[in-house]
Each structure stands twice: as structure tokens, then as C-alpha cells.
Amino acid sequence: MFAVIQTGGKQYRVSPRDVIRVERLSSPAGGEIELTDVLAMGRDDGVELGHPLLEGARVAATVLEHCRADKIIVFRKQRRKNYRRTHGHRQHQTVLRIEEILAAGETRSPVKAASAENALPAKKKAAAKRPAMAKRTAKPKGEAQSKAKPKGEAQSKAKPKGEAQSKAKPKGEAQSKAKPKAKAKGEAQAKAKPKAKAKKPAAKPKAEGDGKKDSPTGEEKS
Predict the structure, then answer these.
(1) Where are the alpha helices (DSSP H) in 66-158?
(2) Mean residue pLDDT across the chain
(3) Are 39 and 2 in contact (CB under 8 A)?
(4) Is the pLDDT of residue 222 over 50?
(5) How many domains are there within the chain?
(6) Is 209 inside a domain boundary?
(7) Does some domain include residue 173?
(8) Separation between Cα atoms, residue 151 and residue 147, nearest integer Å
(9) Are 41 and 59 in contact (CB under 8 A)?
(10) Could you tell me which of 57, 61, 60, 70 has the C-alpha nearest to residue 29?
């Protein structure tokens, strides 16, 4: 079953339980309305067209909420005039839920309304049962705390900072051990220097022997 309705200068093809957005209506949210501008109606026995409307046909709907559509940008420009304007716009809309499509002479069936009323208490009972079940399954707080280790025991197992610092070697002792090594290096260098000085006197006699060579005349140099 379907129907083609007209509202706000637009046409919509709707069926029962459909949710549509139409131009803003004056009815308050949560209220019920009937749309009488029905252009066509389709049922099991065929499609019926209006000229231009179907007399007596109507569509029952419930107003869910009033809202606004997404923003659109409106830009205007005039060439060679240095004219540019930008505006934003959000159209006001109403959200409807189609409940029933009625032909001429038909009335709304109150069965759906009664079933909806009966469904509300059932939901409330189910919501009331959930907390009771949660209380049964939840463990008492005392048991959860007893299983958790106390903070005092955890701190006692941890080593105190004083013992850790005592095990670490003091900086002063490490520096005192390092100084003798530096002194030993200095003494080794001082011992190595005399060896270099001892080599120099051994080279001097060679220079004196070279000076005593005979001159070309056979006379010794004075």
C-alpha cells in the first residue's frame, strides 16, 4: 500500500511506518495530523488516481520533531560591479512518521494505539528487572577488596632506598682509586726520559773523530 501526497509545494510517495521530512508545519511535536492532499493511492485491488486529488482520502501521520536542514551557501555576484555577497541558509523542516493510509469513508483503527500503550509497561518491567539481576551477579565490595593485596605488604616487599644507596659505591672512593693510576703513569713517563738523554752522549765521540781528519795539505787542524 502506498500513497502520493502533497505538502509544502512538494510531492512524496509514502507507505505506512515511513519517516519523511517536509516543510515546517504548525502542529506541535508529538501531535497527530491528517494530510488530505492525496494525489494517488495504490492498494491490492489497483491504483486509484485523483483529478487532481482523491476526495475523502487522507494520510494519518505523527509529528516526531521540528528541525532544520543542512546549511547551504548562497553566493551572489555582479560582474564589473565589485559586488559579491555570501549567505548561509538552513531550511526549517518537520519530521513525520506515516501511521496509516485511509480511503474515503474509512476511520483509523485504534488497535495499533492500544498495542503501543501495552508495549510501554512491558518495557518498564524489563528495565526494572535488569537492576535486580545486576545486583545478584555483582560481587560484594568486601570480597573484592580482600582479594586485592594491601598496600602495606607491597611497600614492605619493596627494598628501602637507604639499602640501595649503601650498596652503591661512594663517588669519593672511586675517585681516590683513580688518582694512584694517574700518578703511576706520571712516574713511568719520568723514568722513560733518562733513556733518551743517555743516547745523546754516545753520538758526540763520532762528531769529534770526524773533526780530526787530515786537511788536504796534510797538516792537522789546530
Answers:
(1) 111-137, 141-147, 151-157
(2) 74
(3) no
(4) no
(5) 1
(6) no
(7) no
(8) 12
(9) no
(10) 61
Distance CA 155, CA 165 (A): 17
Residue 210's identity, in one-letter code, is D
CA atoms within 13 A on the CB side of 36: 4
Residue 52 lies in a domain: yes
Q: What is the mean pLDDT of residues 46-61?
A: 94
pTM (2 decimals)?
0.48
Q: What are phi and psi of 172, to 5 degrees?
A: -60, -45
Q: Residue 66 — pLDDT band, cuts 50, 70, 90?
A: very high
| Nearest-angstrom CA–CA distance, 119 and 49 | 37
pLDDT at position 115: 44
CA-CA distance, 101 to 112, in Å (whole number)?
13
d(CA 21, CA 100): 17
Q: Which residues fall within 8 angstroms of residue 28, CB to CB, at 6 or more apart?
A: 63
Task: Provide the grid cell at 38.
Answer: 492525496
Residue 90 lies in a domain: yes
Query: b/e for 54-86, b at 16 or more Cβ within 10 A?
Result: beebbbbbbbeeeeeeeeeeeeeeeeeeeeeee
- Looking at the DSSP assignment, which residues form a beta bridge with residue 173? none
For residue 87, how many C-alpha atoms fall within 13 Å in the half-sphere facing its CB? 6
Taking residue 3's Cβ as centre, other Cβ atoms within 10 Å add up to 25
